[in-house]
Specification:
about 220 residues; alpha/beta; Rossmann fold; 6-stranded mixed β-sheet; 4-stranded antiparallel β-sheet; 7 helices; about 35% helix; about 25% strand; globular; binds adenosine-5'-triphosphate; binds magnesium ion
Length: about 220
């Protein structure tokens, strides 16, 4: 269970306050597939970052499973992020000097997986997103859509309980985008992985079990 209680995130820039999250409370049950929709600047990425432990709210509680992630610190928080969460960043966040294979291996190194095993696992994840033939390419040698798929493969690597994907199909054509959604849906159905997908695409949102709408930092 993912629970947010009265979560606030305010940015102050040049005396102006921006309420990225304005008293947000919500619950996501295990195995749920939710889509998050809303205009640009409405707080979607902020919400994703807060659930994924990448950002701390100014106030309010975020509880995931038996962990209150607004209370845990550095080491425990990194462990939470790396073992429980598969995060697909809106801007990919790939390491520019690493190959596709190496990028996907990073989270596996962090959990101490042996070299042979992690190569095998990383290759399998890249195969799942259709990038078997680009293992040795670095991000700069890949197309935007291919980079996006590397970041999705990396999110799958540690078999996360929760996948949080920020516009995971934003750089893909309709067919490739749907293939990625199908892959995520399979993980949801067969392994009970929680899916939280931010999207502007109504066709994708329609496939979720619930759509959460956010506007000006508030859930409607
Ligand atoms: N580091 C920051 N400093 C100041 N303001 C910020 C910062 N990060 C986000 N904001 C502001 O918070 C609001 C929410 O940002 P957020 O990135 O969550 O929007 P979003 O819904 O993901 O938008 P998009 O669809 O364009 O990705 C925006 O108005 C943004 O300008
Ligand atoms: Mg965003």
């Amino acid at each position: 269970m993912i629970q947010l209680q009265n979560v606030n995130k305010v940015y102050e820039l040049g005396g102006e306050k921006i309420y990225a999250l304005d008293n947000v409370s919500l619950e996501i049950t295990p195995g749920e597939f939710v889509a998050i929709m809303g205009p640009s600047g409405s707080g979607k990425s902020t919400l994703a970052n807060v659930i994924g432990g990448l950002d701390t709210p100014d106030s309010g509680r975020v509880v995931v499973g038996d962990q209150e992630i607004t209370e845990i610190r550095d080491k425990a928080l990194s462990k939470y992020r790396n073992s429980k969460i598969g995060f697909v960043f809106q801007t990919f966040n790939l390491h520019p000097d690493y190959t596709a294979l190496e990028n996907v291996m990073v989270p596996l190194i962090l959990v101490g997986m042996k070299a042979r095993k992690r190569k095998k696992r990383a290759r399998k994840c890249l195969r799942a997103v259709g990038l078997e033939d680009r293992l040795k390419h670095k991000p700069g040698q890949l197309s935007g859509g291919q980079r996006q798929r590397v970041s999705i493969a990396r999110a799958l690597a540690n078999r996360p309980e929760i996948i949080i994907a920020d516009e995971p199909t934003g750089n893909l054509d309709t067919k490739k985008g749907q293939e990625i959604i199908d892959l995520l849906k399979t993980l949801n159905k067969e392994e009970g992985v929680n899916l939280i997908i931010i999207t502007h695409d109504a066709k994708i949102a329609r496939q979720a079990s619930r759509v959460i709408e956010i506007k000006d930092g508030r859930i409607s």
